[in-house]
């Protein structure tokens, strides 16, 4: 059994993932045994598509602990990660976005912390932008009002938004998190399998909120300040009408599943 496994879902962003893997391999202690799965959701149609994929696989082949998987279809974020769920043979599993970069050995620190704190089912570390500023990816449980503000009135209700994103917390200390954004989460593999991974009815967006809620029902999700990763965070649904529509659809599915908590 490996100490760690990790999964990254790709979609036409091969260069970004190569950069993420290079930083992960550069900073992670070789004493941490791991397998990193790259799940490619890109639908290859043209010869150029297939060539780009083969070039990508050639880059990944430089790293013996990286494995490639694809079904040549866009399965969505959660279903993509779930593709390797039954293969996982590790103590802990990391859910990693393609836009993550390492600038320290975050995995070793998180691994040691979770080994010492068996009551912690999942960890989210300190996520910063490339300038080192803390990102607001730690949140209270979702309500319709908070999601409405986030989606349609992001320049209003600043105090409410600050409260929702836990900006009042002391980020030099660990604390329990109701909902941590799924850009970088590390979970006990046994728990991840018990929960059957992501609910793949969510194509993209809020599958992370759903997973966090299910983890917190049986264990604890903790913010861990002693490990940091960089998150470039493109916020695609704020710029793309198709992604925005998917985001709204996921909101509907989430509140249908968990109840329509207004505020």
Structural write-up:
The protein is of the alpha/beta class and 263 residues long. It has a single domain (2-258), classed as Alpha-Beta Complex (Spore Coat Polysaccharide Biosynthesis Protein SpsA, Chain A), CATH 3.90.550. The chain has helices at residues 14-27, 47-60, 77-82, 106-116, 144-152, 158-164, 189-194, 207-218, 241-258, and strands at residues 2-10, 34-40, 66-70, 90-96, 100-101, 122-128, 138-139, 175-176, 179-180, 184-188, 221-231. The strands form 2 sheets. Strands 1, 2, 3, 4, 5, 6, 8, 10 and 11 form a 9-stranded mixed β-sheet that branches.
N/C terminus separation: 44 Å
What would you call the structural class? alpha/beta
Q: State Rg.
A: 18 Å
Principal-axis shape equals globular
The number of distinct structural domains comes to 1
Low-confidence runs (pLDDT<50, min 5 residues)? Answer: none
Fold blueprint:
Elements: E1 2-10, H1 14-27, E2 34-40, H2 47-60, E3 66-70, H3 77-82, E4 90-96, E5 100-101, H4 106-116, E6 122-128, E7 138-139, H5 144-152, H6 158-164, E8 175-176, E9 179-180, E10 184-188, H7 189-194, H8 207-218, E11 221-231, H9 241-258
Parallel strand pairs: 1-2, 1-4, 2-3, 6-11
Antiparallel strand pairs: 4-10, 5-11, 6-10, 7-9, 8-11
Helix pairs in contact: 1-2
């Amino acid at each position: 059994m490996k100490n760690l496994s990790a999964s990254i879902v790709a979609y036409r962003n091969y260069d970004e993932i190569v950069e993420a893997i290079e930083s992960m391999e550069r900073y992670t202690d070789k004493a941490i045994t791991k397998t990193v799965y790259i799940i490619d959701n890109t639908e290859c149609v043209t010869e150029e598509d297939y060539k780009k994929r083969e070039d990508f696989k050639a880059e990944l082949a430089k790293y013996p602990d990286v494995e490639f998987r694809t079904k040549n279809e866009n399965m969505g974020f959660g279903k993509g990660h779930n593709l390797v769920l039954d293969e996982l043979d590790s103590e802990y599993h990391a859910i990693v976005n393609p836009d993550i970069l390492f600038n320290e050995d975050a995995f070793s620190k998180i691994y040691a912390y979770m080994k010492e704190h068996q009551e912690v089912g999942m960890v989210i570390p300190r996520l910063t932008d490339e300038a080192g500023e803390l990102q607001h990816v730690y949140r209270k449980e979702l309500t319709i009002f908070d999601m409405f503000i986030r989606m349609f009135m992001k320049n209003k209700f600043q105090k409410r938004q600050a409260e929702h994103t836990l900006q009042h917390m002391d980020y030099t200390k660990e604390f329990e998190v109701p909902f941590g954004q799924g850009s970088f989460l590390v979970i006990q593999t046994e728990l991840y399998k018990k929960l059957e991974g992501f609910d793949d009815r969510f194509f993209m967006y809020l599958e992370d909120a759903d997973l966090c809620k299910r983890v917190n029902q049986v264990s604890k999700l903790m913010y861990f300040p002693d490990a940091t990763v960089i998150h470039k965070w493109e916020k695609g649904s704020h710029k793309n009408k198709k992604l925005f529509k998917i985001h709204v659809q996921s909101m509907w599915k989430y509140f249908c599943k968990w109840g329509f908590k207004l505020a």
